[in-house]
Amino acid sequence: MTDNTYSSKPVSRDDYTQDPRRNVEFAHAPRNYGRWVAWIVALVIAIDVIISVARNPNFEWHVVSQWFTETSVIHGLGVTLGLTVVSMVLGTLLGLLLAVGRLSQSMLLRRLSGMYVWFFRGTPLLVQLLFWYNMSTLFPTVALGLPFVGPTFATWNTNDLITPLTAAIAGLALNEAAYMAEIIRAGLLSVDNGQAETAQAFGMSRGRALRRIIIPQAMRSIIPPTGNQLISMIKATSLVSVIAMGDLLYSVQTIYNRTFEVVPMLMVAVIWYLLITSVLNVGQSFIERFYSKGTRRTVAAKRRQPSAEAKAVMAQPNLARKEDL
Q: For the chain, how many helices (H) and strands (E)?
């Protein structure tokens, strides 16, 4: 019966010198030529597209450079950024309350929060903005007082309260709160329930445990989708142009309605949106890195030379296969 296991006859250093494939010191990853070809093809296509766009006279790049920093465009950009910041802050705060309500032990809070999320996620943002802008047709006045039979303490004209600015903020913030509620709720659920139980065992209240322990750990799961929502909010502000709100898109529309230079003015808006979202992407990366400290797995990219012990083992192996001898 043939023994195909291992032989106790040692393999000399010359065997490894003559056949480098046996020596781990010379091991390397296989070269992926297909990946190199894919990179070259992608770069060639990208360069071709860039040159075609740059040399196309229909884009009228001289007009783009002329209006890129025009006063009305910069003012519209400021309105876009202001709407984004205010709506995102209000939406995040309200979304946090809704997320806590959906995770509450009270059935009333869970039902109310669930109905809010169902309604605002189920209707288009443009429709919500139009409803807020035309609120005076439904409720000409807004009264403050006791419900049903109580006296009225104050009354306001709805047109005075619901301006294009307040309609834009209300529509964007309330819609964003529904999405942020689900993002925050998913982040809170990603934290092990034992964390809250341990905090309560040490005498922490539920609110303090949420602030000091649960939310900081949940941020690692909350930040990436929140960054996506912020970028979506930047682009969603363009919808307020339909209610005569002077954002970036409305500003370029006003200009090309006068000059009939539609494509160049749209390119002005496109470039500004791309610049803003690029800056936000960089900021999101830094924030994600901050909250993922201690959890990232670093993969060493450099190849390390084998130690002296490893070289000695490779030079003087104890066992070898019979068929290799």
A: 15, 4
Rg of the chain over all Cα atoms, to the nearest angstrom: 32
Identify each DSSP E strand in the chain by its residue range. 6-7, 141-145, 152-157, 320-321
Q: Which has the closest alpha carbon to 265: 129, 38, 67?
A: 67
CB 222 within 8 A of CB 187: yes
The phi, psi pair for 317, rounded to 5°, reads -70, 150
Q: Is the dihedral of CA 104, 109, 110, 113 positive or negative?
A: negative
Amino acid at 303: R
CB count in 10 Å sphere of residue 258: 9
pLDDT in tens, 136-161: 888 888 888 777 766 777 788 888 88
Q: Where are the domains of the chain?
A: 64-291
Q: Report helix, strand or coil for 156.
A: strand
- Strand (E) or helix (H) holding 263: helix 262-291
- This prediction has a pTM of 0.74
- Is domain 64-291 classified as CATH 1.10.3720.10? yes
